[in-house]
């Protein structure tokens, strides 16, 4: 796929526009609700956007997870489903795609990312061990803690500062990692949990130089490095754009090289890989792979389907190849930047630089009059829905949960509301509407009152918590 853009083919007329490298073949109508309908729907949902019915939503920016539009080739692949219980040919297509594009030796399908997180945590963490990582992710940390591990954040300080323009805010701070190894002892480190890009930091990338250095440090101590590859293609795009020596290199090449510095990866294929469901765990180590492929049968399904239909594995294999196309990834991230530019022009506070999958609005700067205990980011998500039926989600104190030892809220520095852009789903006109709605909510920011939590689930509370107006 080497289609050339007007920008590169046009005569020297200055900068030319780019457009999506696809056209629309099938459409799904959107419903626009009235303010009264939204007021009622949100109250019924306990002011949690996760509890809204999607039919009450106009533009759905809750998540980029499983919300992508599949291509005609992927849909054709669905018709080639080989629904054999064992040894489906679609499994071998998936295995081949992961080996070719990510470069790992052994592959296990899982129903989605957290299935793979569960397996890697169970086989690679001994109770009492530490799991250093570049900022926590909700489901990742949950599985690490359930396996008896303790997550330790070793990301660079800039990642916690929404205004820092550091080009690789996802980087691991090598001094923090070395310090943990020295304090705890290498045998008390289960593995390094490296994510590219870093979701909770605003979709921020990790540099190739950083993963190389992490690899070197870990080699000195015999520590393994496992990668959360969920948005690693987006990470590779940023490397091609920003890192000396990688400018303009194909994203597929960068992806392979980055993965080569790690010992395995888990994947939520619902993100980068352009499918609605699926995931995988890949490992180079024979012994760990044997344990994981034994365990996958207990929790997911036989090692050649892992909770997926054959047709899903086929769509995923095709999606992997499409996801590393340079044209695709450029328009994917270009759309988010387009929205970022509009918001920036209107003076809206959000995490800079714009990351790979979303705009993260800085709720602290929207609502400086609200305490973090009054849930500013949750409030912003509610206000945005009421204004225009746009659904976003909280990434702040609610998502951060409680400290399992003290029972107190974890209080993250970042109090963000995420506008997550599904892949190949919305048009530029939808982005205009979103920007206008955010501007309207920002203009009336002083009247926001905050929320109180009325129901709190024990695990991953942000999904099901309920709130009321203060
Ligand atoms: C979504 C996500 C996961 C979990 O994957 P699921 O498919 O939702 O289970 C893990 N890590 C990151 C960075 C994610 O964004």
Describe the overall structure:
With 470 residues, the protein is an alpha/beta fold. The chain contains 17 helices and twelve strands. The strands form four sheets. A five-stranded mixed beta sheet has the order 1-7-6-5-4, sandwiched between helices. A three-stranded antiparallel beta sheet has the order 8-10-9. α8 links the parallel β4 (192-195) and β5. α5 (113-124) packs across α11. The model is unreliable at 1-10 (pLDDT under 50). The site of pyridoxal-5'-phosphate has 15 residues, from α5 and α6.
Task: List the SSEs and their pairings.
Layout: H1 6-9, H2 35-44, H3 72-78, H4 89-101, E1 106-110, H5 113-124, E2 130-133, H6 138-146, E3 150-153, H7 174-184, E4 192-195, H8 208-221, E5 225-228, H9 232-242, H10 251-260, E6 264-268, E7 279-283, H11 286-299, H12 310-323, H13 326-345, E8 358-362, H14 363-366, H15 376-388, E9 393-395, H16 397-400, E10 416-420, H17 428-443, E11 451-455, E12 466-469
Parallel strand pairs: 2-3, 4-5, 5-6
Antiparallel strand pairs: 1-7, 6-7, 8-10, 9-10, 11-12
Bound molecules: pyridoxal-5'-phosphate.
Short note summarizing the structure:
The chain is an alpha/beta fold.
Attribute tags:
470 residues; alpha/beta; Aspartate Aminotransferase, domain 1; Aspartate Aminotransferase, domain 2; 2 domains; five-stranded mixed beta sheet; three-stranded antiparallel beta sheet; 17 helices; binds pyridoxal-5'-phosphate
């Amino acid at each position: 796929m080497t289609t050339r853009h007007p920008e590169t083919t046009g005569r020297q007329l200055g900068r030319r526009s780019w457009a999506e490298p696809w056209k629309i073949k099938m459409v799904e109508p959107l419903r626009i609700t009235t303010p009264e309908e939204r007021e009622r729907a949100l109250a019924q949902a306990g002011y949690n956007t996760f509890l809204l019915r999607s039919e009450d939503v106009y533009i759905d920016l809750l998540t980029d997870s499983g919300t992508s539009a599949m291509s005609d080739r992927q849909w054709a692949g669905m018709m080639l489903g080989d629904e054999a219980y064992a040894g489906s040919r679609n499994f071998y297509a998936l295995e081949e795609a992961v080996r070719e594009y990510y470069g790992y030796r052994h592959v296990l399908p899982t129903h989605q990312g957290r299935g793979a997180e569960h397996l890697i945590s169970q086989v690679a963490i001994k109770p009492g061990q530490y799991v250093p990582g570049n900022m926590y992710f909700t489901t990742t940390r949950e599985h690490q803690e359930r396996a008896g591990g303790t997550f330790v954040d070793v990301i660079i300080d800039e990642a916690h500062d929404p205004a820092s323009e550091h080009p690789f805010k996802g980087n691991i701070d090598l001094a923090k990692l070395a310090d943990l190894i020295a304090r705890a002892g290498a045998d008390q480190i289960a593995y390094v949990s490296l994510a590219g890009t870093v979701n909770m930091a605003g979709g921020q990338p990790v540099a190739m130089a950083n993963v190389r250095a992490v690899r070197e440090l870990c080699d000195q101590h015999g520590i393994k490095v496992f990668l959360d590859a969920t948005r690693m293609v987006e990470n590779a795009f940023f490397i091609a754009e920003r890192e000396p020596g990688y400018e303009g290199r194909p994203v597929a090449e960068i992806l392979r090289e980055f993965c080569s510095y790690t010992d395995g990866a888990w994947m939520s294929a619902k993100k980068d890989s352009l499918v609605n469901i699926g995931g995988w765990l890949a490992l180079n180590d024979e012994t760990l792979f044997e344990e994981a492929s034994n365990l996958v049968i207990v929790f997911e399904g036989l090692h050649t389907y892992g909770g997926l239909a054959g047709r899903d594995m086929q769509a995923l294999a095709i999606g992997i190849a499409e996801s590393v196309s340079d044209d695709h990834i450029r328009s994917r991230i270009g759309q988010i930047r387009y929205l970022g530019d509009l918001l920036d022009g209107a003076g809206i506070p959000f995490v800079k630089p714009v990351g790979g999958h979303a705009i993260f609005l800085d709720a602290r700067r929207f609502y400086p009059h609200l305490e973090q205990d009054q849930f500013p980011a949750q409030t912003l998500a509610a206000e945005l829905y009421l204004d225009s039926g746009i659904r976003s989600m909280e990434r702040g104190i609610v998502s951060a949960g409680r400290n399992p030892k003290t029972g107190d809220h974890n209080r993250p520095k970042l109090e963000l509301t995420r506008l997550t852009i599904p892949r190949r789903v919305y048009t530029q006109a939808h982005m205009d509407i979103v920007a206008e709605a955010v501007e309207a909510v920002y203009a009336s920011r002083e009247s926001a009152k905050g929320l109180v939590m009325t129901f709190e689930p024990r695990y991953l509370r942000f999904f099901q918590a309920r709130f009321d107006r203060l």
